[in-house]
Amino acid sequence: MSVERIVPPSMRFKAISLQEYRKAYAASIDDLQGFWSQQAKGLVWKREWAAAVAGLGPSTRWFVGGELSPYENVILRHKETNVWSKTAILYVNENGEGHTLTYSDLDSLAERVSCGLRGLGLSKGDWVAVYSPPNVESFAFMLGALRAGLPFEPIFTGFSPAEMARRVLRRGAKALFVTPSYLRRGRLVDFMGSGKTQLEKLAEAGIKVIVNDPAGAYESFTGFADILENCSAGAESLESSSPLFGLHSAYADGFKPITHPAGGFLVQTYATSRWVGLRPRDTVFCTVWPGWITSVTYQFFGSLMLGSTILLYDGAPDWPSWSRWIDMIDSYAVTVFLTTSSALRMLSKQDSTIFAGKNDTLREIIVTAEPLEPEVWRWAYTTIGTLPYPVVDSNPGKGGSIPVLSMFIQSEVGTFFTGNLVNYTFTHIEPGSSGPPFPGFHVDVVDDLGNSIRGKPGRLVLRKPWVSVPVEAPEEFYEAWRNGYYDTGDLALMNPEGYVYPLGRRDEVMKVSGYRLSPGALEEAARLAGADWALALPLRNPDRLEAPVLIYHGDAEEEEVIRAVREAVGPIATPVKVIQVSGKPVVNASRVDLASLTRKGELESVLRLLSS
Amino acid sequence: MKSLRTLKFRGVTLTRSGFAGVKLSYMESSICIDVPQPDGCTAALYTHNHPRHAPQTPPQVPVYSPFAGRRVAPGERLELVAGVKLLTVHAYSLGYGGAEAHPKGVGVGFLLEFPTRLRVYHAGDTDLVDEVLELRGLVDVAFLPVSGRGVMNPEEAAEAVRTLRPAIAVPVHEETISQARTFKRLAQPYTQVVLMEA
User: Fold this and answer.
1) Which of A443, A574, B36, B45 has the fewest CB atoms within 10 Å distance of its CB?
2) Which H or E run includes B130?
3) Which chain B positions have a beta carbon within 8 Å of A324's beta carbon?
4) Among A68, A191, A192, A177, residue whose Cα is nearest residue A120
């Protein structure tokens, strides 16, 4: 564990002492209701809430009786301000072909999308889904849905068409937006070829498939340009606890949907986006894609609510070389770079000269999704986090003038909830940690009996409900509250000063490059390939934190099993190792125990346990 | 490597071409500004008659400039192709510390307005003069010179951005990448700077 303390590296940020932080934190936790009610006043409400909070645990509802227009709070709030004529989205593909819109342009486009969706027969409360790499049209589609009062689910394109179709059907979505082709590493990916069967199946089920192709003519589908129309309908308002958007989250036996509420999510996102430092003058480059919570919260909602410019890159990070992202930071004057630990690990292996002198507008680097090792943190701080010109520096001689801030997020919580906040409680940075808990989130690390523990690994929990408690969630979510607090399923260490060091999952759910994957979904895929028994476990991996290993019994060839996983779940779930066992195992250990062995690299011990 | 080759904004595709050249493609037309070899351009606009900006011999496309083709003068308004409106504005240097590279009245800048409401300003070779600042509120995209030799330096170009407040600002006429970067760092809080491949 690191004992190094880095004070905020530049006079551009105001540091506070731990005592000041503790005072602010304790005040927020002692009066969560008052704290979040105050934060909620930053939003525009159509009708103020009657009760700030009602219900208990996973059934807690915030701002009960309140009503607000999500679209107004994300877009229209900027209408009479300077933000309206500034750049909202700057999109670029691998070929360097860009597309930009101002907030005013984006509003016009989203309005026409919302009219088109209404024209297709969708009405307030109907779900829609998006399966697309980041581009202007997919973002406008989500905003159009928001304007029409339609909750949406973005689905990561790293999941297969089969997994996409399952999610669309499970949601009961009435429309699906897809991008038919895109460049990846210089080659055109033809989704209309690979995904056509699934799309036709969805169209037959009555789902409107909207294809983002200005030139396309599709018999059973609708062109994006064809749905754009004008109407006089305004932006819909929603009750505070109405569904706003949803994602599928990974659980032991499969991916299951969770839904965030309009009021609570927007309050939590607006507050934390300001705390992490987003401002209208920022250009935010988030390398996490729609379909994962970090992107939905901080690339889509948070950046737009704060009036920042969103840089969307539709391409591979290593194309034509690993300097691509830093060249983008340079070319588009990025000020906030939001990426993952896995990405930094990959970048740290490249020739450091490719990063020189290209970060002069950068103000902060936020890292998400998994533990960030101190050495990778150190690399980021001294290589990307060092400006090419001198600044008044409170950390002389140590290099680094841009803070590298690891933060912890979970789909169920909806926003970051631990980390150093450049625009709120900015205490010293401890490399390897994800900072102290955010004010307003009662975070603790506990032993199996629920006692707080410090300096040792334990369960990362939230003792009190947060504002964006999901309004729809699977049984596992309610089960995670059985001891009176919410168990995130993650392991962490909290040091005596309250800094949180995430250590990965505690259960059998895997975290592959920061992506949470369900072992059950992989096992189901293996069974589809002909296995009569299968077990997926997280294998420790130096680059991706964890990678799946699949052990199975049955007639299927290993290649067939791998193909089945790629087809049923997606390329991101491809096992790094597939092991066929000769006899059908009798397992005398829990899957959690087996996962903890493979996480330690003890695959052989697992195989011995299985064969016995 | 810079990342951006073309930028589409309200139906107009913007491309840099050479030292200070810009190509603006809209519908079937391409309007080129300070592109010495305007191949594929529907109309060629030149801000002044210097070698890195204009050809030595007239190109085979309609030319708009203060020195050849359809002569234009500061303050003049006319319509180009495809409904694109042109306003010609002053561009000149103030001659700090020596001879004026661009005397007043010789060169021009261009403000083009496309039917999609996109307004593109190419400043030409100019210092930070009052006539530039008078375009406040009229510019969505600004192409500004930053080399500091007879034209604005990065600090002055950033100062222009603070007044003009375009949605997008692109440095041109740079002699080193550091000039473009200095402009970027100073101007970014007031606009979205993009460095485009020349």
Assistant:
1) A574
2) helix B130-133
3) 3
4) A177
CA distances from B51 to A517, B47, B54, B62 (A): 60, 11, 6, 19
pLDDT score at A124: 98
Within A201-353, strands assigned E span: 208-211, 222-223, 238-239, 243-251, 254-261, 283-286, 309-314, 336-340
The encoded tokens of residue A323 equal: 């300097």
Min distance A327 CA to chain B CA atoms (Å): 6
Interface A-B: count of C-beta contacts within 8 A: 86
**Euclidean distance between CA atoms A555 and A539, whole angstroms:** 24
**Contacts with A83 (C-beta within 8 Å, 6 or more apart), sequence order:** A103, A280, A307
Interchain proximity B6–A98, CB inside 8 Å: yes
Q: Which residues sit opposite A98 in a β-bridge? A: A92, B7
- Nearest CB among A85, A99, A331 relative to B195 is that of A331
pLDDT at B2 over 70: no
Give me the residue label for tokens 């509120």.
Answer: B137
Identify from B192, B195, B197 which residue to disrupt to test chain A contact, counting A C-beta atoms within 10 A and taking the largest count.
B192
| Residue that is written with structure tokens 């030149």 in the block | B46
Q: Are B42 and B29 in contact (CB under 8 A)?
A: yes
Q: Look at strands A87-93 and A97-102 and give their pairing.
A: antiparallel
C-alpha dist (Å) from residue A74 to A71, A110, A235 = 5, 12, 11
Contacts of B27 (CB under 8 A, 6+ apart): B11, B82
Amino acid in the structure at residue A97:
E
Neighbouring residues of A193: CB distance < 8 A, sequence distance ≥ 6: none
> Can you spell out the DSSP letters for B85-103?
EEEEEEE----TTS--SS-
Q: Which helix (H) or strand (E) holds A528?
A: helix A519-528
- H or E stretch at A333: none
Question: What are the φ and ψ backbone dihedral angles of A605, each rounded to 5 degrees?
Answer: -65, -40
Average pLDDT over residues B99-116: 93
**Closest Cα to residue A275, out of A90, A471, A25?**
A25
Give the HSE-up count for residue A179: Cα atoms under 13 Å, Cβ half-sphere. 22
Any bridge partners for residue A138, and if so which?
none
Report pLDDT for A398: 56
Q: Which residues of chain A have pLDDT under 50?
A: none
CA distance, residue B83 to nearest chain A CA (Å): 21
Tokens of A57: 């645990």
Q: Which of A12, A81, A90 to mutate: most B Cβ within 10 Å?
A: A90
Chain A residues whose beta carbon lies within 8 Å of the beta carbon of residue B196? 331
Name the residue among A87, A328, A335 with its Cβ closest to that of B168.
A87
Determine the Cα–Cα distance for residues A130 and A132; give it in Å rounded to an integer.
6
**Torsions phi, psi for A471 (to 5 deg):** -90, -15
Q: Which of B10, B14, B42 is nearest to B29 (CA)?
A: B42
Residue A495 is which amino acid? Answer: N
* Alpha carbons B7 and B194: distance in angstroms, whole number: 10
Would the CB atoms of B181 and A330 count as touching at under 8 Å? yes
Could you tell me the two tokens for A103? 């907030």
The residue assigned the tokens 């009435």 is A174
Contact A260, A248 (CB under 8 A): no
Tokens of A544: 């991706």
Per-residue model confidence (pLDDT) at position A400: 65
- Count each helix (H run) and each strand (E run) in chain B, helices first: 3, 14
Please, which residues bridge with residue A365 across strands? A337, A404
Tell whether A279 lies on the interface with B, counting CB pairs under 8 A: no
At A395 the pLDDT is: 55
ipTM of the complex: 0.96
Nearest CA in chain B to A358: B181
When pLDDT is cut at 50, 70 and 90, the band that residue B97 belongs to is: low
A100 and B4 within 8 Å at the Cβ level: the answer is no
d(CA A414, CA A412): 6
Q: By three-state DSSP, how is residue A310 classified?
A: strand
